Amino acid sequence: MKKDDLIQQMAEGAGITKVQATKALNSVVEGISEALKEQDGKITLIGFGTFLKVHRKARQGVNPATGAKIQIKATDVIRFKVGKKLKDAVA
Question: For the domain 41-91, what is the CATH superfamily, name and number?
Fold first, then answer.
């Protein structure tokens, strides 16, 4: 499913226009992004899942093309843990 398909489904399901559904979806995505920028970097949508920011330490890796060792910098990554309702719905 693409973003346009999701917007169409939201509009039909909520009985709103596609413009309103687009604004709603963009607002949700922006809200999740802003919450993940915070220090704790976590947002939980009960039944759907939890987005969380996790710090990944610096580490040594290997370039698969050349076999040369490289240093990979520390970074923050986003993880998603599936909620029970979503997991049961898909399984």
Answer: IHF-like DNA-binding proteins (4.10.520.10)
In this model, does residue 39 exceed pLDDT 90?
Answer: no
**What pLDDT is recorded for position 85?**
95
Helix (H, G, I), strand (E, B) or coil at 58: coil
Mean pLDDT across 23-34: 95
Among 91, 87, 59, 52, CA closest to 75: 59
Domain ranges of the chain: 1-37, 41-91
Beta bridge partners of 51: 43, 80
Report the largest interatomic distance among the alpha carbons of the chain, rounded to a whole angstrom.
57
Cα–Cα distance for residue pair 1/7, rounded to 1 Å: 10
Question: Rounded mean pLDDT of 2-7?
Answer: 96
